[in-house]
Amino acid sequence: PEQPTGFYLINALLAGDGTALLASLRHLALPAFTLGLLLSGIFEKVLRLNLRRALRSDYVEAARSRGLGEWRILTRHALPNALLPVLTLGGITVASLIGGALLIEVTFSWPGVALRLQQAISQRDYPVVQGVVVVVAALVVAVTVAVDVLVAWIDPRVRF
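The structure assignment produced for this chain is given below.
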């Protein structure tokens, strides 16, 4: 499809081209796996540590003493509290993922924003460079705000 944004997936959605959308999703698998693999260990360790803490807490012991099943205790009491630090960590890592996505784009030879940014830098096309920086910064801010709102929604103790 036409390339107004530089993102294959978004361009396919905008064009309404189902074939291009499926092709872009299929080609996203390896780069997404590469990006996800880098951070999955960190997320797993943070979740495991916080889940162990939550399962040893007083409110979980109170739930056990009331006779609640382990699955209900895990899903209703321990897991929501253990996920809060993981969500916050996810919001923090968005900036590195976006930067990593640009590097992955170059590595897998995807002509997109990274290629356009590289061309703009080499041609000293400063408005394009500024535009890419503003869009990336806006994405980071939007995801960070969304994570903060989600954390406040999940945990009523967190207020702005």
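Interim note for the steering committee: The chain is about 80% helix and 0% strand. The helical segments are 8-15, 18-55, 58-65, 70-107, 113-122, 126-154.
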